[in-house]
Each structure stands twice: as C-alpha cells, then as structure tokens.
Amino acid sequence: MTTPDSEHIHAFLPxxxxxxxxxxxxxxxxxxxxxxxxxxxxxxxxxxxxxxxNLYRRLRTLLADGLLEETEGPAGEEVxxxxxxxxxxxxxxxxxxxxxxxMEGLLREAREAFGGG
Amino acid sequence: xxxxxxxRLYRVLLLAFPSDFRRDCGDEMTRLFxxxxxxxxxxxxxxxxxxxxxxxxxxxxxxxxxxxxxxxSREGMAxxxxxxxxxxxxxxxxxxxxxxxxxAGTLALGLGVVVALFSVVDAVLLRPLPYPDSEExxxxxxxxxxxxxxxxxxxxxxLDAWSEGVPGLQVLGYASSQPTxxxxxxxxxxxxxxxxxxxxxxxxxxxxxxxxxSRADDVPAGPRVAVLxxxxxxTRLGAAPDVxxxxxxxxxxxxxxxxxxxxxxxxxxxxDLWMPRLHPAEGCHHGxxxxxxxxxxxxxxxxxxxxxxxxxxxxxxxxxxxxxxEDVVTELQSxxxxxxxxxxxxxxxxxxxxxxxxxxxCANVANLMIVRGAGRSGEMAVRATLGASRGRLVRQLxxxxxxxxGMAGALGTVxxxxxxxxxxxxxxxxLPRMDEVALDPRALGFAALLVLLVTVVFGLLPARRASxxxxxxxxxxxxxxxxxxxSGWSRSLLLSGEVALSLVxxxxxxxxxxxxxxxxxxxxxxxxxxxxRFRLSTPESRYDTEETLRFxxxxxxxxxxxxxxxxxxxxxxxxxxxxxxTIGIELRSxxxxxxxxxxxxxxxRGYLETLxxxxxxxxxxxxxxxxxxxxxxxxNESAARVLxxxxxxxxxxxxxxxxxxxxxxxxxxxVGVVGDTRVSDATxxxxxxxxxxxxxxxxxxxxxxxxRAPGALSVLPAARQLLADMDPELAITREESLVDAxxxxxASTRFYMTLLGVFSVLAVVLAAxxxxxxxxxxxxxxxxxxxxxRALGARAEDVVGxxxxxxxxxxxxxxxxxxxxxxxxxxTMGALLYGVEPGDPLTLAGVTALLLLVVLVASLVPARRAxxxxxxxxLREE
Lengths: 117, 878
Hints:
Chain A is mainly α.
C-alpha cells in the first residue's frame, strides 16, 4: 500500500463533520451500519437520529473516495454475515488526522482571537 | 409481520433512488431502518421515525440523482442551501401565479377529496367501535342448516340457554318500543329499548348517574325501572342531578328512574331510555320472538371457540324444542362487522373513486411540471453556463415541488374539512357511525404522507430531466431547448392514463344514474303522491282491545271527514315504515302441508282505497267484518300465486300462527285478492302476504294513512288537533308524507350517485384541463413549423386536423385502456346496482361518447388557434 501524499490528503479537506465522525468511530474497529449509527448517536450534541439514506450515501462516498473499505467483519468476533462491515483505510486515517490538525489550528486561532480556555 | 410490512413500505420509498444505489445499499438501509423501528417504543415515536425517514429519503435521493458518487465531503452544509432554495422557490412561485394556482389547486383538490373520504372510511370501517374491548362485542344469528335462512329473532329461552352453555358469555336481548310519555301534561312518543340484561355493562361502560339495569330486573312481574339516555336526561329533564329515584309516566304506568347513561352511549339506535323487557318467561304469547340479541365474548375466547360451545347448546335445544330449534344453529358475528356490512363495499368503491381523482390530479401536476421544466430549460441552461452546479439546479426544482406540495397539503386539508361537513350532511340515515366522522390526526397523518410522496415523485422526475440540459445547448439553440422526444411521450402517456381513469369514474357514475332511474321507474303498487301518515298506539293500561278498535275506527272516520281529505285508513306493515310481521299459514284444504311463511298486515276497511291498491278479485273488508262476524282475509297476488297455484283462493280457509288483541286463533276465509305492494324494498317484489281486518285481529299499533285532495296542504296539523280532542294523553309519531318516505328509501343510492357524479365530473374536468394544456403547449412550441406548413400550402383544416390528432390519439389509447379497466372496476359495484348490469353497453357507449366529446373540444380550442397562425409572422418571430 502506498503512503498517501500530502497533496492528495489535503484535497479532501475540509471534511464534512459527519464524515469526520464516521472516520473517528471506525478508528481501530470494524462495524456494521447500525453499530456505526449507535456510535454516532452517543454524541450528546447530535441534533437528531442518524437516518439510513443519509448514512449510506455518506458511507458510499467515503468508500468511493478510498477513505473506507468493506471488510469481512472483525476477526475473532461473532459476525452477522448478512451485514456489511466497514473499516478505515490508511488514507482515511491520514485524512481524519489532517482534518483534526486543521480544526486544532482553527481552535488555536480562535482562542487567540477571543481569549478564554 | 409488522416488521415485514415496514420493510416493504420502506423499500417503496427507496424507489426514489437511482437503481444502482438501491442495488448497492437498499438491503442494508432497509435492515437499518427496521432495526431502528424495532428499538423505538410507542406509536407516536414510530410515526415520527417514519416522517423522518421520508424526509431523509427525499433529501438524499435528490442529492444522489444530481451528484451520484462524487466528493460528498465537498458538498458542504446542505441545510443552509435548502433554506435558500425554499425562499427562492417561494419567490419563483409568486412570480407565476397562474402556474402556482393551477398546480397547487389541482393537487389540493385531489388531496382534499381523498382525505375527506378517508376520514369517513376510517371512522366507519377501520376504527373499532367506541367501547372498551369492542372486538369482543358480537351479535347473534340463527341460521337454518337446511334452508340457509338467517334471522336474528330470538326469545328468552335462547338467551338463557346460551349464557348457561357458555360460562362468561354475556347476552343482551333487546327490542324497541314507542310508548307515550306524559311529561308536564303533554303527551309525546319516546323510543325505548326493552332489554333483558345490563345494556351499559355489556358494552363495558359505567352509568353516569345511579345504576345500570341487570338481568335481575327482567322478571315477569319485576319492578318498573328505567335508565335514561344522557341526551334525554339533559334536554327533557333539564339535567336534574336528583333525577334518580323519581318516576316517569310511560304508557300509562309509573316507571322509576334508577340511572342515567354516559354521554354518547346510544345502543341500540339512540333510544331515549332503557327498560327491562318484563316478559313472561314461560309460554310464547304474541311478540315472543320479536327481540334480537347482542353480547360480549368471554375473555380469551374468539368467535369460533364460542360458536363451537354453542353447537352443544343448539343440540340440546333441538332435542327439547324440536319445532323451533331443529336444523337451526346459532352463529356469531362481530358487532362492528354487522354494523358496517351494508356500506362496506359502497365505501370502498367511493374510496377507490377518490384515489382515481387524486391520481388524475397528480398526473396533471406532473404534466404541468414537465412542461414548466421544459419551458425553463433556457433559464437552466443560462444558469448552468454561468457555473451553477447540476445539484444546485435540481435542488431548486425539488424545493419548488416541496413548497407546492406543502401549499397543496394545507389547502387540501381545508377542503377536506368542508368535504367532511358536506359528506356528513348529505349522508343517508342508514350510514352508520357518521357522528364519529372527523378530520382526525390519522387522516391528517395520511395527508402528510401523501403530500410527501407526491413531492418525491414530482420533484424528482422533472427535476432530473431538466438537469440534463447541457450548457452548450443554450448556445446552439437559443431559447428553443426542447424537453425532448421522451418528455413528449411521457406527457402523452400521462394523458392516456388520465383519460382511462376518467372513463372508469364516469362509468361508475353512469351506472349509479341508471340504477336510480330504474328504482324510480319501479311500480310500487300504490299511490305515493298526496299520501300522509302517522303512527299511533294505545297504552294497554287504559285501552283494552275493544276500546282500541272503537277508538281507531272513530279516528279513521273523523280523519276521512276532514276537509280536503279524500280517504283515510289504518294498517300495520305499511310502505317504508318500521314494523312488519311474518307468520306461518296453514291451508285447511291441505292440512298435511308445511306451514308457509307469509307477511301479515292487519288493515282497516279504508286502507285499500286510501292507497289505491287495486282490488283484483273478490272484495275488501267492510264495516260488517267485526269481531263477532265470520273471520275473513284478503291475500295479495303473490300469495294467491304461491299458495294456490291451481285455482282461485276465494273461499279457501286458512289458519295463521299469530294473534294479537283477541286470544282466539280462528280460521280465516279468503274473500279477496289485491295487488302486490313493495313496502320495504323498492327493488324486491312483494312477499306473499295476507291482510286481516284489524277489527277482527286487534293490533293496538297502527299507521293512520290519509289521502288528501291533489294540491291540498298537509292535513297532519288537523289530524293532530283531532287526536288532542279525542284523547289528549295520546301522541302521534313518525308523521310524514309517503313521498318523503320513498325518498328516504332511495337516499343511499342517491348519495352514492351524487358522490360518484361529483368525483367523475372532477376527473373529467381535470383530464380536459390537462389535455388542453398539453395540446396548447405543443402548439406554442410548433408555431414555426406550422407557419412553414402554412407557407407551403397547408390549409387551415389540415392544421386543425394535425393538432387535434395530437390530443385525440393519446385519448383514444386512454379510452381503450379505460374500457378494459372499467370492465373490472364496474364489477366491484355489483352490489350497488339495480336493474343494470356492470357491463351495460348503453352506459358504456354513453360515457365513452361523452368523454370523447370533451377530449375533442379540449383539443379544438388550441387547434383553432394554431390554424389562425399567419405564416409570415410566425417565421418573422424566430
């Protein structure tokens, strides 16, 4: 697998918040659709439930962009064969990290501008 | 099961997405949604989830069509764009008030009629009866195993046997009576339900005041107690809180009030009060079988289980009373089912009709939007050239559709409000549960769902087409960017569909119209005009049979002597009034024959002449046919034909299995034959009937009937005065003209015909407008072509022909499809029709011709305009 170059990564930024959240919850684990929904909804700041069409359009785009990949399901765990499992690719991880860095930069700027913690 | 339905419904929603997306994600999304639904508790929350799901699909499908798999991450914050687009859409719609009014109005009309009728269907057919655990409520039937005859008449021994045979089964026998109430010195007739048990308890409701009646109240010489209806208590007794314990004088006897029913409780058929039957349990005197029964299943048992237990009871009864119970089994029917059985098919036919109207409205709006989408392709091309993304353009169109559907939904709800009022106001008396009809949240939810669906369909299809406009085409073709051949095709197909649906509706209305004319043309067998009548009964406490007969006879004489009255008579079992008797009759000349069932109508000497029923043979009753004289009878032609197929009935002696005022059951000698009269159903021939002189039979309930001089005013006020002079404590009821009574008989047919008529006119108007729009639009696109044709020598007629063909061709296809569809559609109406077959060729030809005429006119108007195009100016325009 090639290491994604920085120009390629920055073409994805800024990342849609929902896409960013998906990449984050999938970090280090393989999940199916409903499990992703449950993870996403643990965010208390969410305005409402995650609806299927919204989620799958986003997953599909992330797959097409190469930020996610489909897997057979987590090894060594009970896998529901009728479901599709998703995992983050190395590109996805790199993009998420870059987005986090970008937001961190923004936050720093904001703190300097407005003061406060 | 519910899960599978939810999955199926959700899959229907997913049709809004492109097929590759569906293939890829459809299963997963459906599973996700169903899981989610499973985890959601409570009906409102689940409904909320459905609404969210529809919105989710609308928004995402719109985006998917325009973006496909693109860099979603770059799409940005979608919602801000939507708000802007909706604002833009509102501005755009305001700028084109004609289009907006046509589209929103059409859709609102369709939605309005659907929601209004759905409210009726929901209240009458779908919602359970308004009692606790109402699915346990049943009515009892007795069914002959040999002859299949079904009847609801029961007597006390039946009720006792059923409740003993099935522990926990609650049984309530009831019959209605109309005694006279003396209140504040004035006499009036009230409606009483005479019951054998607890009317409120059986239905699971508690009394508003005092107590319910009980089985213990219904004993031969039991206490005279009564429960009042809430309406009677509040309107007639001023809602007196201390009413329990006081008494009312009913039928000349005091009855103690022991309770008041809760508001709205009105079983069976809105009685003013409930009283125990107080019927002698042993022996069967007159009227022993005139009672019907309802009840409540024991907890945890269904109809089949109880019926199985009742088989054993039936067998026991058959052994003990073979005469009444041999070859008879007891069957149960859900009370809801029983109440709505007569109107079920009619309401579904109407619901189908309004669904067709909505479909036509939708097709029209789709047409309008395609046309408008094509008309704006120039604008779209300019915007695309200037850099607007395809997604932006489509989203704008989608927003417009959403706004339009929202407006239509709001307007449609208002229309539905009016529609419901109108429907309830027009509904015939026989339509049950109309008082429960209201625009309820369910109907509103239904409307909301419809609006959203309509938005998905009409927002996405034309939006997708318009978005395909390539910027370059603007540069090549100026403003003449065509919607393309495909859009022309789909518009023609929509048109064919509209015409087909209109034809189905028109045929329905046409068949109902034929039915009504057929019913009106039926020979009833008596005079209807200038006849008035009222019901009168004498209380047994003050009048014995002799006194009743004397009173009736004197009243009849004095009625006949009133100015402008030509004749007067009285009888029981008169045209289109409640009350009929069926009895067994035995012929003395054939003693071993089975008793034949015939209708029994006690009548006075003046009755025949009053209604001008023809005397066919022999004589009618005279004033000499009194109690002491020889007992005589008259039969109708049906009875003469059925009972005496070989010869004249005159002089034959018969015995009838009933008596009323006199205890003896004499042999009756037939002295005359009269014409048949259709008294209870205009569409069915009269049953074999025997008339007995009331002076010899002695009923104390009768309908007094008078024939006034043609053109004279009502004589009912004079009759009322006459009665007040003779006995101020008697009151008359059911005063009406026979014309009104007959009108009531045809009320439901008229109701269905009116509704189908209104719906089909709506459909035809909508289809005509759609057709006109399509043809006119195409003419406006072809100005140059027509100009060239004219310049090359085409005559005006050629141009008219060319344009008209464009409207008529899809209409003909529509008629062909419509004829096939009608053939199936009309079959569902079979039960509503009389005297006309569902496939009646005359009606079919008539409505087809009418529809084609409308089509022709709708295409001729734009065609004439096309013919007027001047070749020179058309070419200069370009």
